[in-house]
Automatic annotation (TrEMBL):
<keyword id="KW-0963">Cytoplasm</keyword>
<dbReference type="InterPro" id="IPR013699">
    <property type="entry name" value="Signal_recog_part_SRP72_RNA-bd"/>
</dbReference>
<dbReference type="GO" id="GO:0008312">
    <property type="term" value="F:7S RNA binding"/>
</dbReference>
<comment type="similarity">
    <text>Belongs to the SRP72 family.</text>
</comment>
<keyword id="KW-0256">Endoplasmic reticulum</keyword>
<dbReference type="GO" id="GO:0006614">
    <property type="term" value="P:SRP-dependent cotranslational protein targeting to membrane"/>
</dbReference>
<keyword id="KW-0677">Repeat</keyword>
<dbReference type="Pfam" id="PF17004">
    <property type="entry name" value="SRP_TPR_like"/>
</dbReference>
<dbReference type="Pfam" id="PF13181">
    <property type="entry name" value="TPR_8"/>
</dbReference>
<keyword id="KW-0687">Ribonucleoprotein</keyword>
<feature type="coiled-coil region">
    <location>
        <begin position="94"/>
        <end position="149"/>
    </location>
</feature>
<keyword id="KW-0733">Signal recognition particle</keyword>
<dbReference type="GO" id="GO:0005783">
    <property type="term" value="C:endoplasmic reticulum"/>
</dbReference>
<feature type="compositionally biased region" description="Basic residues">
    <location>
        <begin position="662"/>
        <end position="678"/>
    </location>
</feature>
<feature type="repeat" description="TPR">
    <location>
        <begin position="226"/>
        <end position="259"/>
    </location>
</feature>
<dbReference type="InterPro" id="IPR019734">
    <property type="entry name" value="TPR_rpt"/>
</dbReference>
<feature type="compositionally biased region" description="Low complexity">
    <location>
        <begin position="624"/>
        <end position="641"/>
    </location>
</feature>
Length: 678
């Protein structure tokens, strides 16, 4: 009994020390007495719970989870569900955390808070929104502002990733976090200008909030503002202000923020700006996207976009194997996504394997009919690049949902016309017109029996037939169209114009159906028309004419003013008595009396001139200038002759061929005279 009493006293002293450490927040020191208590009684539930809490407070989540899993008989899920789920959450075992929470017999407020966080990480935004609404409705404590911030973050995520129109939650944007989340929601809706204003307000609120704390430095404020500035740069990039966006992105990177997720997103966005330019900078930036743990900081769509850009960067840097490997991996992860197969096809085209690229695209179109339209458009583009225009037309005509679109009809007709296949072009028109006829027949509206697109297609088809000599077919179409609507003056005029090419008498008969000029008279302001910007003739305003001006105006009438011809200048040695040479316009060599230059004059000039001077031909006798002599060292400041493939100067560093400085140097060299090596 004395030993038992001594043991109880020792345990009490240890618990007293644990309590004191807990009140002081010294959780590391509290572990020592707890371990001593557990040596006395290994199954002490309270000591085990306290040890788990101390380990969590110290950030030792793996060890805490190990303690829980080791003592499952004592630490049941009902006893320690929150601590276990929290450890799993912090260790990024999100699915396990969800199972732990759902298996708890009692859903406490702490578990509900953690449940909302887990749902957000799993991107189950609808369930997450409902969880936070329930928490805000049934909780009254000092954490209400944080819950509202989380709620606004869920709404922003829905708007950004699921393109859901966010509902107005009636949240007062009193903090910079709420303002930032509101801006993200606006970006998801495409309201970029409004989003920028919200971000500017968030920046202002952030500065005000942090400047109130005397311990916060300017560097701390800039670090906190980094995510706001990153979102501002993203808006600039979407607006096409890439230079401003790039400058702001680089400023954020120089701050070296600790948020690896933010750095990864900024690096990815810089890579998208660089595209196939500045690939060395892109290679440096891509390392930031590979930081450890970045996959737990970003959403699935963000991670997917980064992987797509890695594959494209591999293609731009001519890493064919790496590009194929990345795009194939992406396709296996997202079989229905278009981008991986398009990247693979683009890489094959860079390798001049167009047939393989087309086959790859065809296989994807067969397996995924829902996405076949975009794939087939790409296939058609490849066929056109190969010169197979007819095959490209066949591919385009196989896209049923686009056959009747005016753009598709126009493209097909143009391509068939280029191939001089007029019958196929007319067939395209006919199919499109029939589609609109069937579509309108299925409509219940009686008014406007033909849509503007339908009429436009018919008129274009008629013009095309007239242009290519199919006058009878064109006239037949116009007659049918006019019978359906005899009041259509435009169709009647087009019909008369067509008949005038084939049967002028018939055209005259039809012209009687045209309305009279009186009924067609329009109220036109002639003065306004003449003074309009596009008028070719402007009537002069009548002014007061007096005296001689009035007489000239009345007398001359329609007589045009004669322009005085200037007398041509005569040569200085012109003699009017001598007849001009009839061959004076011909070059001297082509004139009949040209005898050529006299030879032998320069022989007498050898050796003449000042001492040391050389003649023009001396350069031909200089051995240092012959092709067989070895190259000499380049002179200081001069350019050495190199082969075209060894050291080409990049275009941005090249000087223009006719730069004044270059000419000046050449002139100076000429003055020095021709010399050999130095």
């Amino acid at each position: 009994t004395a030993a038992a009493a001594g043991g109880a006293g020792a345990a009490a002293a240890l618990w007293s020390e644990v309590n004191r450490c807990g009140q002081n927040g010294d959780f590391a020191r509290a572990l020592k007495p707890l371990n001593k208590i557990l040596q006395i009684n290994k199954e002490d539930v309270t000591a085990l719970q306290c040890k788990v809490v101390c380990l969590i407070q110290n950030g030792n989540f793996k060890e805490a989870l190990s303690v829980i899993n080791t003592h499952t008989k004592v630490l049941t899920n009902d006893v320690i569900a929150f601590e276990k789920a929290y450890c799993e959450y912090r260790l990024n075992r999100i699915e396990n955390a969800l199972k732990t929470i759902q298996s708890a017999s009692q859903q406490t407020d702490k578990l509900k808070e953690l449940y909302g966080q887990v749902l957000y990480r799993l991107e189950r935004y609808d369930d997450c929104l409902a969880a936070y609404r329930d928490l805000i409705r049934n909780s009254q404590d000092e954490y209400e502002e944080e819950r509202k911030t989380n709620l606004s973050a869920v709404v922003a995520a829905q708007s950004t990733w699921e393109k859901v129109m966010p509902e107005d939650l009636g949240l007062r944007e009193s903090t910079y976090e709420l303002c930032y989340n509101s801006a993200c929601a606006l970006i998801g809706q495409g309201k970029l200008n409004e989003a920028m204003k919200k971000l500017q307000k968030a920046e202002e609120l952030c500065r005000q909030s942090l400047s109130e704390d005397s311990d916060v430095t300017e560097e701390d404020i800039e670090a906190e503002l980094a995510i706001i500035h990153g979102q501002m740069a993203y808006i600039m990039q979407l607006q096409g202000r890439t230079e401003d966006a790039l400058q702001l992105y680089n400023q954020i990177i120089k701050l070296k923020p600790t948020d690896i997720g933010l750095l990864a997103v900024i690096a990815n966005n810089i890579i998208t700006i660089n595209k196939d330019q500045n690939v060395f900078d892109s290679k440096k930036k891509v390392k930031l996207t590979n930081a450890e743990g970045v996959e737990h900081k970003l959403s699935k769509k963000q991670l997917q976009a980064i992987e797509f850009n890695k594959a494209l960067l591999a293609m731009y840097t001519n890493q064919a194997d790496q590009c194929h490997k990345l795009s194939a991996s992406l396709q296996s992860q997202s079989p229905e996504h278009l981008l991986p197969v398009l990247i693979q096809a683009a890489q094959l085209c860079r390798e001049k394997q167009h047939a393989k690229a087309v086959a790859l695209l065809q296989d994807f179109a067969d397996q995924h009919p829902a996405n076949a339209a975009e794939i087939k458009l790409t296939m058609a583009q490849l066929k056109i690049a190969q010169g197979s225009v007819t095959k490209a037309c066949m591919i385009l005509r196989s896209i049923e949902e686009l056959q009747h679109k005016p753009g598709m009809v126009s493209a097909l007709v143009t391509m068939y016309s280029h191939e001089e296949d007029i019958d196929s072009a007319i067939e395209v028109f006919t199919q499109a017109i029939q589609w609109y006829q069937q579509f309108q027949a299925s409509q219940t509206r009686e008014a406007n029996p033909k849509s503007p697109v339908h009429l436009s297609l018919i008129r274009e088809a008629v013009n095309f037939k007239l242009k290519h000599g199919r006058k009878k077919e064109a006239i037949s179409d116009l007659e049918e169209l006019w019978k359906q609507n005899p009041k259509d003056v435009h169709t009647l005029a087009q019909l008369i114009s067509a008949y005038s090419l084939v049967d002028p008498e018939k055209a005259k008969v039809l012209s009687k159906h045209l309305p009279s000029s009186d009924t067609m008279s329009l109220k036109v302001d002639v003065d306004a028309l003449e003074n309009s910007h596009g008028a070719t003739y402007v009537r002069k305003k009548a002014g007061k004419l007096t005296g001689d001006n009035q007489q000239k105006e009345q007398g001359q009438g329609d007589v045009k003013k004669k322009k005085k011809k200037k007398k041509g200048k005569l040569p200085k040695n012109y003699d009017p008595k001598v007849t001009p040479d009839p061959e004076r316009w011909l070059p001297m060599r082509e004139r009949s009396y040209y005898r050529g230059r006299k030879k032998g004059k320069k022989k007498d000039q050898v050796g003449k001139g000042t001492q040391g001077s050389t003649t023009a031909g001396s350069s031909e006798l200089d051995a240092s200038r012959t092709a067989s002599s070895p190259p000499t060292s380049p002179r200081p400041g001069s350019a050495a002759a190199v082969s075209a493939t060894s050291n080409v100067i990049p275009p941005r560093h090249q000087k223009p061929a006719g730069a004044p400085a270059t000419k000046k140097k050449q002139q100076q060299k000429k003055k020095k005279g021709a010399k050999g090596g130095w």
